[in-house]
Design a protein that fits this description.
Oligomer: single chain
Structural class: alpha+beta
Order of helices and strands: HEEEEHEEHHEE
Helix content: 10-25%
Number of helices: 4
Mean pLDDT: 97
Largest sheet: 8 strands, antiparallel
CATH topology: Pnp Oxidase, Chain A
């Protein structure tokens, strides 16, 4: 399993569960729609009234789980940032290719985008015997 295969796996999925740390360091998780950059960055949108928004602003460390069908998954740890300006436009282009309805959500009050840059990920496929497991550090 190499980076291009990880990218292919991630781009074949539309959803992930993102976990962040809330007040008093309580873990909080949410289902999100995702897009993936060539650098394995995860892009998603959210509203500022969500729990994840203030969590990620206060502490940008987060983790995601992508995929669960057929015992194949990626566990993903990274740092979330809220891109602005040209950087935001570049990531929105990737996101809108995956989510064509994304531009319509731009009118939602408080809508914003996050980009999660990976620090560690683990691909696991427990269907074959022995299982296929690959870890990456960034």
């Amino acid at each position: 399993m190499d980076r291009s295969q990880i990218h292919a796996f991630l781009t074949n999925h539309r959803y992930a569960v993102v976990s962040s740390l809330g007040p008093n360091q309580t873990p909080q998780s949410a289902l999100i729609g995702i897009a993936v950059s060539p650098n394995l960055e995860i892009i998603f949108d959210t509203v500022k009234s969500s729990r994840k928004f203030p969590n990620l602003i206060a502490d940008p460390r987060c983790s995601l789980v992508i995929g669960w069908d057929h015992e194949q998954t990626v566990q993903y740890e990274g740092i979330a940032t809220e891109p602005l300006g040209e950087e935001l436009a570049r990531y929105q282009k990737i996101y809108f290719e995956k989510w064509p309805d994304g531009p319509a959500r731009l009118s939602w009050p408080g809508l914003t985008h996050f980009v999660v840059r990976p620090t560690w990920l683990r691909y696991s496929d427990f269907d074959p015997s022995p299982p296929q497991i690959a870890e990456f550090r960034f």
